[in-house]
């Protein structure tokens, strides 16, 4: 009798846990859609801030289609102008005008220096790269414990806090497999970009690996836009800036 | 008089350089695209080289006595502009370069268009181009045998802008769902007549080149072809793939039906000869270590490289020339274009390690590298320090040492040590 009770209880708990994980996956997908539409163009600024307050700013134009195609081009500063980046699935390339051909890069390298790496710039949906290991329902916030689906993802684990009402992230901790903190992202200043896109417009990032340094990612403009697959090819990398309208 | 002119050029460059405002970059750039764009950059790189007075090359250059070092002052200005109107894009990149060497009091300059073309893109999948354009094919870091419509990189500055060729080309690209994600084809006609594309081929001709690119099973693959109306044919392929995200492998193979070379024979006299069915190979890898250090290793084989005995004959001719032999001097000078290039023998190994931002010095990347001639075991070894903190400026310091025994490629170079500090200002 006791054994049967334990088995039924265990089965119930396992089913409940599975259902909750499934809910977590659905919730994470909603957070992804709230952050960015499926196909869009975007302008954003990356700012590296040094301990003495000095800044280096990068302005990027980016386009994304679905969960495997992202392309971007640096519009400033002059020393980085016209460098473009492309992500196609797990493949990433960097195109430098003087070099004149795309060169394969990895997600952990940094095209800008400082706290940002290539994965931060060419990010796709969390739900595409991570599985929900555990979802904790706290007062006013969800806490997602996420685990990378493959080894090609920049961060093995994420701890993502999201506002329950808005379903938008507030804080993300990026961790190694051994739970060592690599960086923390703070989502701030929710803004209405039009077209039903309401999301945090500033992501502040700090890292224990870069003590005293911080970085800002400021979203200036996001617009839904249908895009052709051909825009996301290495042949098109020198022309990404021509997609600006 | 020439010296005065060069000095004036440097004065102008220096004035521009020092007049750059020290203020931080102010991002007031509009998000609206413009139909036209202009940009420019100025590069200054003084160099200091210490001579190896016992080398054959030094002996040929200074038969009696010469300096122990050479200091030279180089500058370059690049101007770029483009204008877009509907499906048409007109683009030009002009370059003026000048250099002055103090010991010889000699100066020189070059002015040219690196690129200058009009491109018509009636759709996102097709474009046609007429004008001067460089096609940079190949995956090798240093040496690209499949770059049939390109120029060899400068080992002193491999990211330097190179001069293109005049011609016409078309490009078509398609994306697919499935293992074949991208397919693109580029084809070009490059005429070599008179001054047009002089040096691209030895004789006047009409050359056709084509490249087919595919992203197939997450692997970049290119097939390249060269043919001309002298029945010369070259073909090859390259590939690049990430085995795991932090480990990339690449390779190139090129075959040429015929290539002309020149060798020195007993006498000494030079003789032009044709090499048939030559193969060039590149095999390389790049690995991002967990420590964030990137390692690059490239092996390359040149099918038209010289053998050890041919190199010995060349060095012998240079040394005889230094001793006063006129036939030897004539032969050495005639052979020089084929013996004094960047890669003259058959097998080389390039290795490089770079580590960005050590000790959290942001924007600073130190690198060490070496280019080894496997055939004679001579090598050059270098250190490079790059700093990219500023919005308008990049600083690069380089040091190279040339090491090798007598009758070896790097042992017989005129220089033993070479240093440069390069400043690039972008507007």
Overview in brief:
The complex is a heterodimer of chains A (245) and B (427). Chain A is α+β, with helices and mostly antiparallel strands and 245 residues long. Chain A has helices at residues 2-35, 118-121, 126-129; strands at residues 39-49, 55-65, 69-76, 84-88, 91-95, 102-105, 130-138, 141-148, 157-163, 168-175, 181-194, 197-206, 214-224.
Tell me about this structure.
- The complex is a heterodimer of chains A (about 240) and B (about 425).
- Chain A has helices at about 1-35, 120, 125-130; strands at about 40-50, 55-65, 70-75, 85-90, 90-95, 100-105, 130-140, 140-150, 155-165, 170-175, 180-195, 195-205, 215-225.
- Chain A is of the alpha+beta class.
- Chain A has a 13-stranded antiparallel sheet.
- The longest helix of chain A is centred in the first third of the chain and has 34 residues, at about 1-35.
- Chain A starts with a helix and ends in a 21-residue tail after the last strand.
- Chain B is mainly beta and about 425 residues long.
- Chain B has a single domain, classed as Porin.
- Chain B has four helices and 18 strands.
- Chain B has helices at about 1-20, 55-60, 310-320, 325-340; strands at about 35-50, 70-85, 90-100, 105-125, 125-135, 165-175, 180-190, 205-215, 220-230, 235-245, 245-265, 270-290, 295-300, 345-355, 365-375, 380-385, 395-405, 415-425.
- Chain B has an 18-stranded antiparallel β-barrel.
- In chain B, a hairpin with a 4-residue loop joins strand 6 (about 165-175) and strand 7.
- In chain B, helix 3 (about 310-320) packs across helix 4 (about 325-340).
- At the A-B interface, strand 1 and strand 2 of A face strand 6, strand 7 and strand 10 of B.
List descriptors.
heterodimer, A: 245 residues, alpha+beta, outer membrane lipoprotein receptor (LolB), chain A, 13-stranded antiparallel β-sheet, 17% helix, 45% strand, B: 427 residues, mainly beta, Porin, 18-stranded antiparallel β-barrel, 4 helices, 18 strands
